[in-house]
Structures are given as C-alpha cells and as structure tokens.
Specification:
single chain, alpha+beta, Endonuclease, Chain A, 3 domains, four-stranded mixed β-sheet, 35% helix
C-alpha cells in the first residue's frame, strides 16, 4: 500500500531516474512505492511534484507523443530500442498522412519482444534497426529520416502509394531558406539504401513502387499530388521548378511544365491572395503566354476536387497541340 514519504533527494528531483539511480541515492524499493513517487515505466520513476517537460520546450510546434519528452527518452532507452514509425516521423518534422495525425502513442522498434514496454500509450514494433539507420533527436534515440520513410510505408495499405511519394518528395527537396535553396534532408539514393537495409517487411513493395515516383523539385505536398494526378491520367512526366528567361531578360518560373502539351502549372497557396502577389502572378502568366505556353493556376479548390478539372484542361491542351490547333 502506498505510503507518504519525505521529498526525494535533490539528485533525483526534477528528472526521471532508474531503480539503480534511486538505490545509489539511498532510496529503496519501499520508498519508490510511496505517494511522493510516480512510476514512469518498468524500472523508471520520478517525483510526483516534478513538472514534466513539454515538446514545445524543445522547439516543436506539435507534441510528438502523449508522454513528456524526458519520459519518452527513458522508455526508449529502457526497452533498448529506438523511437520509430509515427514518433520518428514527427521528430523529423516529416509529412504525415491525415489519418495518422491522431496517433500520439510512442512507437519503439526493437529486434525482439524481450524488454517490451507494457505501458499504455507505447507501441513496440518487432523490427531490427541497423546502426546506420539510428540517430538522436532532442535526446531521444530515433530512426533516421530514411528509415522513418520506409517505416511509414509499412503503415500504408497495399497500393496506397501517394502518401509515401509525398513524404519522399518532401525529404529530397531543396527547401528555400532566406531566399536561397538549401541542402535536402536526404537523397533518393540514401532512401534506397535504407530500404535495402530494412530487408523484407510489410509494405516493402509499396515502398519500392513509391521510390520510383519520388522526384526532386516539389516544394509542397499539393505539388506532388498534382504531379501524380497528371501521371495517373497518362500525361507525360512533368518537369519541376522550370525557369523562363525571355529574350529581353525578364525571368519567371513554374512549379510544373509538360513540354509536350506546351503547358505550365502553378500551385498557388494562400499567400497568392495579396494584391502584390496577384500582380506578380499576372506578369508571370503573361510571360509564359508570350513564350507559347498555357499557364494554369491551381488552387486548394482544385486539390479538393482531386485535380480532375486541371487534368481535363491539360488533356484538352495536349490534344490540341497534337492536332496542330495551337
């Protein structure tokens, strides 16, 4: 039966501690069962009076798991595993399918069930993770972005390829930082190497199929979804982040271009609603028109429609080009 006890030694206050650390501080098993102590997981405790840390304290906009970060780190360490799957995707800031957004359980991968956590809110995956696929983020051992991408594929239904391509494109893109393109998180080659190390697993066929469709150049998930919708319609492979320089030296660009149809496409997000941006978009469209290209602006309404209207417009344009009408 729990009993009241005096405060814990200063060495144990404010942090999660193991049974061995408690013994070293002179705190025995009976005292660990007192009302002043809370069990975090098998073999780890902390003072009830402690204020748990938050994921926001670590600079993360959304919680990675229901557990506080320091408790998540201890659970991972005591299972001798590595944070993985949804947890790893969040720690790396990767693109999550909407249907995984509510999963705040701590996912841990380990090669066997021994040492498996029995705590509610913790999911153990019996998977071997090579050292090459392990890194550390915010003090937590976690799978690398490449391995997290492979594990995402294991959560998808057979044939559900689009979420994997969206996540893959996001990993290999060169993001804008202060107006300059910077290095990507990873490359298609490194994704393939991690997939090879993962061996056989549920979802490996989905991963291999998705990797064949991952491209460098999509700046957002909607751009990837638009590219896949065009390909699904049988259209030629679009070029990404296409630049135009006119004979007078004027410059503009497009998110996607299908040269065979003489069409360029732009996914215009919320920032395109400002008068200044709309003026730049009008200039952009004029320059492409003068270059003999149909310039199509794509919006969130088209995305909600599955890009069906956009695809029809591009198909009509392609048919006109092949017929010599334009």
């Amino acid at each position: 039966m729990p009993r009241t006890a005096s405060p814990l030694p200063a060495a144990l206050a404010g942090s999660v501690f193991t049974c061995a650390e408690a013994e070293s501080a002179g705190v025995g098993p009976d005292r660990l069962r007192s009302t002043a102590v809370r069990r975090v997981t098998q073999g780890a405790h902390r003072a009830v009076a402690d204020r748990p840390g938050t994921w926001a304290d670590l600079g993360l906009r959304e919680p990675v798991a229901e557990l506080p970060p320091e408790e998540a780190a201890v659970v991972v360490a005591l299972t001798r595993g590595v944070a993985s799957h949804v947890t790893a995707l969040r720690l790396h800031g990767m693109v999550l399918p909407a249907w995984l957004a509510e999963d705040r359980r701590l996912h841990v991968s380990r090669p066997h069930g021994r040492g498996r956590s029995g705590r509610a809110g913790v999911v153990t995956h019996l998977r071997d993770v090579p050292a090459a696929d392990v890194t550390e983020v915010r003090g937590i051992r976690v799978t690398t972005p490449e391995r997290a991408w492979a594990d995402l594929c294991s959560l998808l239904r057979p044939g559900q390829i689009e979420p994997a391509v969206v996540a893959g494109d996001a990993l290999v893109r060169h993001p804008w930082v202060d107006g300059v393109r910077t290095a990507p998180v990873t490359t298609p080659r490194r994704l393939r190497e991690a997939l090879d190390r993962a061996g056989r697993f549920k979802g490996v066929r989905t991963a291999r199929a998705a990797l064949e469709l991952v491209r460098v150049g999509a700046d957002s998930p909607p751009e990837t979804e638009l590219r896949l919708a065009l390909l699904d319609a049988g259209l030629p492979e679009p070029r990404l982040q296409v630049q135009l320089v006119t004979s007078t030296g004027e410059q503009t660009d497009a998110d996607l271009a299908i040269d065979e149809a003489r069409v360029v496409l732009h996914y215009d997000g919320g920032h395109h609603r400002t008068p200044d941006q709309q003026a730049r978009d009008a200039r952009r469209d004029r320059l492409w028109q003068e270059a003999g290209r149909l310039s199509l602006s794509v919006s969130v309404l088209d995305r909600r429609d599955g890009y069906r209207g956009v695809v029809r417009a591009v198909l009509r344009r392609w048919a006109q080009v092949r017929a010599g009408v334009v």
